[in-house]
């Protein structure tokens, strides 16, 4: 956006009839209406730009009606952000609200808000699963892990490849064991928008495996008093096995984005 002074001036125009040339109706006839300005919202949202471009003027304004899945409380955060309101950053947010803002910000193409909401979603501590002995049967544990996966999956849907570094730390805490279900594997195979989720799982499990190999190597040395069986670890030294385990380095991602942009 602009300077703090400019943003404060824009905020005075938020939902102000003066000079408004958009009447936005959210959540149907019984929802909420907003008086907005094309000169403000269109340059800052691809969604608004496309919608306004496809809508004719009715009198002095364009009448925009949004689908029922666009909730007023989430829409309010997005348009206020466009007008310079940054209270979303300062005020405590629930996990569900942050996730809804992330989803709508990505849909509307408001990148700064998308990144801000994503960081809030990744800040929420992941609950630790109960010890296996506390489950009556395997289905209880599966239901718990499936619920955790739904949140991870939804957050990843609001992310992009540029967010890899943010997600890596999140996954290190959230994924402690194999929790991929057959259903999720099929979804990953069938939906391209889950590509980021698939890549993060691959990297995380690669790290778990390499640490396991490193640990086995160390134990083998301790047990044998020398080098481990070369047939088991023919090309991995203790030093190599324990160094940085990220498949992709940040510079690799930058080079890839440079080639594909």
From TrEMBL:
Name of the featured protein: BTB domain-containing protein
One family name in Pfam for this protein: BTB
Residue spans crossing the bilayer: none
Domain BTB: 20-91
PROSITE patterns: BTB
